[in-house]
Amino acid sequence: MRENKMPAKEFLPLLGVTAAAFIFNTSEFMPIGLLTGIAADFKMTEAAAGRLISVYAWVVMILSLPLMLLVCRMELKKLMLATIGVFSASQLLSAVSTGFWGLMAARVGVACAHAVFWSIASPMAVRLVAEKFRSKALGMIVAGTSIAMILGLPFGRMIGLLVGWRMTFLGVGVFGFATMAYLYFTSPKLAGGQGFSVKRLPALFENAALSGIFVLALAISGAYYTAYSFIEPFLLQTAKLPDNWVTIALSVFGASGLIGSKLFSKYYDKAPLPFLNLTVFGVAGALLMLYPASFSLPSIVALFVFWGTAVTAFNVSCQAEIIKRTDESASAVAMSIFSGIFNMGIALGTMFGGTICTRLSIADIGFGGAMIAVPAFLICFCIGLPEFKRA
Fold first, then answer.
1. What is the mean pLDDT of residues 229-234?
2. What residues contact 358, with CB distance under 8 A and at least 6 apart?
């Protein structure tokens, strides 16, 4: 039994990276749960305040690859600590911002840290442990992001409702500095990569399966965030849920991510392409049913379980395939490309969702997302992703 138990010297630093994943994911989605309060404080519409999400995503998209190429030789522990430090300081600046553009500037600092963190988190996690524990390590990172959806985002929203959205940012900054201190004492030094030349980038895109994952990630993230970026005002205005049930619904959505992670670990290796098809189908179906489900509390909760499960399973499947199909020197760069493309989808989806809210109705955001997700599913189902069947 002891052979199947992860040693403390591996588990403790992995726990720190998991905590960092929790706080980074909490921060990324905080404006979604606080959008109404931020918009009211700065006297603007939710669609205008939604620029906090889209600009953040654009920064991550643009800087993920350049920043990773710049720091890929850096010792990994030192890079992680510096990344969390920039992240935490930017959160404190968000808390004391005096205007919307000051808040936007602080969020750009968070986005720069995000661009590096999600490029190195999964590769660092699998390097901290023995090879037989690598899937468990990746699962812990996914668990950290899911717990952020269960506890972090709703708890942050609850703090925002009670004492203002600024205190939420302040709390995240303090937690970030505490996580940095923990990793300083528990994480071993990990040599940086051997360097990754820009000349090697074409080889990554020539990998047909990787290119397929990148394109699919763009479509699904865009579809997902067309609706999810405005899910708080949707639940308040269209579903007519009271504040406390909005928080509960967001918690249910996050908790379902643990189901997606469990299904991934149990079934993905047995049938990668069918599993991926099902996750894309789940996202498309959930978006189509978002408005019809909004008329009943049980139906919206059930839909959130289905939707959250599918999104999490899709995301971790993509990350697992990227790590599997790249060597150690290229995995962080490939993950940075994935992160950049995924955030391009977030930015485009948020812009599209904002346009739908302004020109049509917030009730239509699910249908708007489905316009992207349904064709993506049909292509994935009918054609498949290159090399998946042969890999």
1. 84
2. 45, 47
